[in-house]
Every structure is written in C-alpha cells, then in structure tokens.
User: Fold these one by one.
Assistant:
Number 1:
Amino acid sequence: MLMKVLEFFKNLPPKKCSQCGKTIDEQHECYGNTCSDCLGAAYRH
C-alpha cells in the first residue's frame, strides 16, 4: 500500500505557474501555484 502512495507522488508531472506557465522548481504537493517571478519575490534561491 505504501508503495502505491509513493508511486503516485513520484509520477506527478512538473508543477507549472498558473500565471506564466513556467515550471516551478519545488515540491509537487505544495499548495502554491505561482512562481516567484510572478509573485515579485525579492528573495531567490
């Protein structure tokens, strides 16, 4: 059973920004759907 859950998250497609469509480099299960560029964030990784 645990392997099925892990496979689900492993096989999720890359998350895309809802504003510009750029791939977001973060965890797929995160709630945010806007990249830092579109948010205007001053802090960059």
Number 2:
Amino acid sequence: MVFNGTFWGQVFAVLAVIIIYFTVRFAKGKASNLPLVGFYSFLLNFIFPPGGWLYCLYWAKRKCV
C-alpha cells in the first residue's frame, strides 16, 4: 500500500475549510464575534480535527439568544 502524504494533506485541508465554513454559517446570528468563531474553528480543525467537528456541531445545535 502506498501512502501519498500530499493527497491526504489536500483532503484534510479541504475538509477543514468545509467545516470552518459551516461553523461560521451556523454561528451567524448566534455569535456576537464571528471572526473569533472562525479563528477558533480554524485552530481546532488544524490542531485537533475532532474538536473542530464538535465545535461545528455546538454552533449547529445552539439556540438563538
């Protein structure tokens, strides 16, 4: 089995961008500081990816205040 690091790195980066987009989209109207939500999502997706997915889920399930 050949492990192609470039391919998997690109897949990882595309998935991270998609999750960041949806996190900011879900947080729109619920958060007072959208750039901070995007920054946190960026950090979580590139440092600890499951944390980024959970953060996206948090904003998706959160009710409007």
Number 3:
Amino acid sequence: MQPTPPLTTLLDAATAHVRTIPGFYVRSRPHGFAAHICASPQNLCQVRQLTSTELMAQGMKADTVDSAQLVLSELVGNSVRAYGDHVPLVVEVYVTSHGVAVNVHDPDPGTLPRRRATPLDSAEAETGRGLGLVDLLAPGWHVRRSAIGKQVRCRVPAEPSWN
C-alpha cells in the first residue's frame, strides 16, 4: 500500500476547483475534513465528491465510501427540507478507529429529525425512507445540541487501513 499524502495536500487538490463557489469553505481535520456550506445542489455535489476523495485516500473501501455519501446526502437533504435552500450547514467527515464519522450541524436546536413509518421496500412511497436508510448504514446515530444549533452524528461501520 502506498502512503497517504498529507491531508492538506489532498484537500488543496480536491477543493482547488471549488474555491470560487460561494458558500463553500473546507478546513482539514485529522483523517478528514469539515465543510462549511450554504446548502445547494452544487455544494452537496462538491461535498460528496470531497467525501469520496478523502475517504479513498484514507484507505476506505468503495462500499464504505458509497454508504458515507448516502448518509451525508440524506442528512443534508433533511436539513434542506426542514429549513429551506441555502441553510448554513457544517458537514464533518472523518475516519475513526471504528468507521467513518458523518456529522451534519444545522442552525436549529429545536427541530429534531423524525423517522417516518414508511417501509424501506414500499413501492408507492416517494419519500420518508431516508432516516430508515441512515439506520441501516449508520446504526446508533443520534442528535445532540451544539454551539450552532444541533448536530446529527453518525458512524458508518468500517475498519480503516491504519488500524
């Protein structure tokens, strides 16, 4: 296995093309990143791509990367549905000794995500399965209040290559 390049090099390379996008700021953190975004389809696409780039560089398997991207998309989507387009969010993705942490902070400490009774295999339902998918991919997710509102904290189980 080849050594992983320094995180700042990866982030610089991965975010070089997004530095001119309004509402998108990335900072490194150990084994991952924190992205401060103004929620939009373009910024979600960029943070998903950054997630893939960073997790692959950290030695995560493709299925773990896909799961982390799906969890991230569901959590960001829930925030946008609750608060509208352009809500300010902080998205953290980083590798831990137990898997991949995916945390999404939003500005409202009062509104908590709710699971709907929609079965995951429902052929008729068009919405309502997101938190059910998060339950499957990141069991034990939870919500806590934070300095900027609330934080939904998830961990996608995986074994990092540096364990």
Number 4:
Amino acid sequence: MSRREQEHQQHVRVAVVGSGFGGLGAAVRLRREGITDFVVLERADSVGGTWRDNSYPGCACDVPSHLYSFSFAPNPDWPRTFSGQRHIRAYLEHVVDVFGLRPHLRLGHDVQKMTWDKDELRWTIETSEGDYTADVVVSATGPLSDPKIPEIPGLDSFPGEVFHTARWGDGRELRGKRVAMIGTGASAIQIVPRIQPEAARLTLFQRTPPWVLPKRDRRITEAERGLHRLLPFTASVRRGALWALRELQVSAFTKRPGRLGPVEAMARAHLAKSVKDPALRAALTPSYRIGCKRILLSSDYYPAVVRPNVEIVASGLAEVRGSTLIAADGTETEADVIIFGTGFRITDTPIAERVVGADGITLAESWKDGMRALRGATAAGFPNWMTIIGPNTALGNSSMILMIESQLNYLADYLRQLNTLGGRTALAARPAAVEAWNREVQQRMRRTVWNTGGCASWYLDASGRNTTTWPGTTAEFRRVTRRVDLAEYDVLRARATATATATAASVEETV
C-alpha cells in the first residue's frame, strides 16, 4: 500500500464491527472507559443485529425481557415478560441515543477484509465505503448474522418464492398459498402459529422434533412498570431473581443431565395435552434427551400443528422438482412458497474468512479444525483482535447479555493493559494459552447434555466438537474474564518504538 493510500485512511483507536447487542455494548463500554476515538462499522442501514434482520411473524425472545437487556441500561417499560422483536429493536435504538453512540456509527459499511500489519502493529480494514486503520478490532458480528440454506438439488427450479426466516422482509403474502416450512427450530415454532390460519396448506419438514415447554408469557401491567420507574431497585431485584433461577439450573445441563428428567416430563405432558392423535404425537416426540438441543418455549405451536391444513413430514427436504418437494423418506408435497428455518452459519462464521492475521492466513484457515479462542475472546496469531460472543460462550438456558457484559469487562481491561504498556503496542494470545484454555473447556464439555444427549445440534461443528456453548455458570465466566492475564500474551512493540528504546538505553549507558 502506498503512503498516499495510507494518508487517506481514517485511523481510530478501536474499530467495532457489528451493531447488535455485542457491538453496541462494546461502544457503550468504550465511552465509559473514556475512549471516544472509535467507530462502529455496520453493513446494514440501521442498528439492531439479529433483531433488525429477523422480522418474521411472531418473532420474539425466549429469555425474559428484564434479563435480556443491559444491566447498565435497564428498561422499566418492557410490555411483556417475553418481549417481541419490535420492542427489542426499539430498546437498542434507545441505547444508541441515551449513550450518544450515533456519531460513532458508520452504517452501510460492509467490512470486506481486515489485515494485520505486523510492522505498524495495526489493522487495515477495507469496507464498502472506504478504508480504516485501527489499533484494536472488536468483532461483534454475532453467530446469528448469516443465514444458512442447505444445498438442495433442484431448488433453482422452484417457480415460487424461496427465502430464509431471517430475510422475511415486508410484503410477504401467504394467504391461500401452499407453504412449506423447512425446519422446526426456534424460528419455526414462532412462525407456524402465525401463518397457519392464512395458508391453504402448511407442510412442515421436520428432521428432528424439538422439545417444547409452555411459554409463560403475559402482559406486564402498568402498575408493575410504574413501580419499576419509581423504584428502579425493584427491576434489579426482578432481574436478579431471573438470573439466580437460571444459575441453579446450570449443573443439570453441564454436569448431571439426569436431573433434567422432571423438565422432560413437563414437556411430554405439554405435548400429550395438546396433541391427542397418537401417530402425530409420536412424530412430535424427540428421541434425544431434553436440553441436548435448545429447549423451545411455545404455548401455541402444538395447537397450530394439529389443525387440518397442517401436515408434518418427519424427514428433511431432499430434492425439488419444479413445484414438487421430495423429502428424504420419499414423501412428495406441492408448494407455492418455501421458507427455510435452517439456522445460521455459526461454527463456520463468514467473518472469519475476512480476517487475515500475523502469519498471512485467515481466521477461517486458523480455525479449520474448530473454533478456539482464549477466554472466548482472542485467537492465536491475531494480535489486538477480540471477538464478542466468541467460541464456547453461548448458553443453553440463560441470557447472552450476561456473557456479553463479561466479555466487555475483558475488553476494558485489555485496553487498560495496552495503555499501561504504552507506545505502539499489541497483545498476541500465546498459542499454548489458547490450547490450554480450549483443552480445559473441551474436557468439561464431555459431561454436558449437549455432548451426551444423543442429538446433532448447531452447537457442534462438522467434526462433532462443541465449539459453541460455555460449560459453566455465567458467574464463573464473569470471574475468568474479569482481568487480562499478561502471562497468556506476548507483548509486541512496533519496530520504531523498539529501536528508539534501544537507542535511549545506549545513550544512557554512554553517559
């Protein structure tokens, strides 16, 4: 790169990629740490991350509202115990305004490549709207940002609409149409009850049935909201109770899966109460231990699937021939619309293909045998680069906001350490430290329900390793990410700085 090109790049102390909960949380933390020299690079035209992209009918969170929000930005006005997409997105816009983040936003900036300059000790960032350099990069693109649509033979020949749940958009008209829903995961069980009354025929292609518990959702009364506004500590108490209950559940998921038996009994009772047909009930009953896949919450999914215009195909979609959909078991179905609820690229995140580290290889190449990062944040060979919601930080029963805030603590201390070291400095995670951390996590993972429950889930990568979830409590994760241990890092200094230091030392000796 020429000097002229370098001069036309904007340099910042920190570049944050993504404007969902992770990216906006990082931006707030930077300002609270006194750092204002940063930008938030966002490929879309507004903030919100997954809560912007997912606008399908019925889209809502399966974590209680008062726990699915920042501790530093409580919202006393949540309308429901489990809030919908519209209100969560509005909450994030509110966070942007309250904490003065708009001057830092760079909307419509799709990050195309990030390259580590080992001479300058900084990142060069190429975006669709211009280039930047940054001392530190915080990757907060999130695991639910890039939809995954399986390669289905003949899909291109389908004459009707084909789209993923995360690309629903406006103006989708399903009334009177034959709709095929591919997948029966968290998005599908929210969508099905909403579109079932409109569709002429709704066919669900189900490879594996989910465990479903009733969703105890209700409107939060004005009296409750007024109390939280008048006495903010009451909202904190509410949040604390929700957190504590879920912390008590962790050992059943991570150490003693047998304790999930009563929860499975509740799910079976919910299914039996809602579905009277023995054959259909059998098709909707999972064969794996509850908790192995994410437990879903819905009180209207089962009532919807028993309606006369709904059919369950207990098999995945294998082929498309024109408007005819053929399942793996040979079942044929005619459809006018195909909706994919097939999840996201989680263990092979696309952003990793765009990050080029110190050795000239991409993060995707470094992670070809599985994602791994020190304390879920930093990767060997990628100095001054940190990810929010990184490897083995996801949860099976609680709020990801808790994990995000823990990682923000780690980010804050990381930046303090760089300031203390002074000069043009970088921290590079030592390979041995990354491997030791990953080895311990994988050792603990062996006992978890996610590894022993007898299912294939999005928690596992292509080789069957769980590189996604955290095998402990959120309190433990907060403890292990409270401070940066410099013994786990190599300290890098720019050549000019190192030369100047050596010269100064030589002069001092001479004198």
